[in-house]
Amino acid sequence: MNRERGFIYYHCERVAKISIHLRKELFPDESSLDDRIYVGALFHDVAKGIEPHHQTGSSLIRTLLQEECTGEELNDIADIIRYHNTRHQEDLPFHIRIVQDADVLDHFGSLEIWLKFVYCGHTNESVFDAIRLWESDEYKKYLESSRQSLYYERSREIFDRKIEFAAQFENRFRLECEGRIEF
């Protein structure tokens, strides 16, 4: 992967924290599943690179945590992992949908900018390649489909703020790359 060392771990840690934040905002009286949400989010990409990673991870976690969890806890955690990248299934319980939204949200905003620069460094792309990506129709479609994949209005609000920040950065970055000093 063209990402920094430890990316999957740090991504999963952020998704776990975002998941709990979303749960507190969206379902303030539903804290009973917080441990399962946190652990499921923390391990959601445990099998990344061993595809299909959501199925592989769901099976693997049953072995890894069999001595640490009850059967019911393990089922919930395995389900979070199994369904974390499945979208538009309204029959999924809220704790799975929260982790799905958190997973999407972690890929945007300042982190998206960082990931693009790290990727450019690994693939010998220039700053102008990053600008071309951000200006492309493909990127605009990616943003729209990512936003549409979110279940909750609050998640869409957070997404929009992240995109707004990134767009402001990208605009200034573009101007500076062109040697312009007026903003």
Key features?
0% strand; 183 residues; single chain; globular; mainly alpha
What do these coordinates show?
Helix content is 69%, strand content 0%. The protein has helices at residues 7-26, 34-42, 53-64, 71-83, 94-105, 110-123, 127-135, 137-148, 153-177. 27% of the residues are buried.
Short structural description:
With about 180 residues, the chain is mostly helical. The protein has helices at about 5-25, 35-40, 55-65, 70-85, 95-105, 110-125, 125-135, 135-150, 155-175.
Radius of gyration: 18 Å
Overall pLDDT confidence:
94
Unreliable segments (pLDDT under 50, ≥5 consecutive)? none
Strand residues, percent: under 5%
Number of helices: 9
Q: Which structural class fits the helix and strand makeup?
A: mainly alpha
Topology:
Blueprint: H1 7-26, H2 34-42, H3 53-64, H4 71-83, H5 94-105, H6 110-123, H7 127-135, H8 137-148, H9 153-177
Helix pairs in contact: 1-2, 1-5, 2-4, 2-5, 3-4, 4-5, 7-9
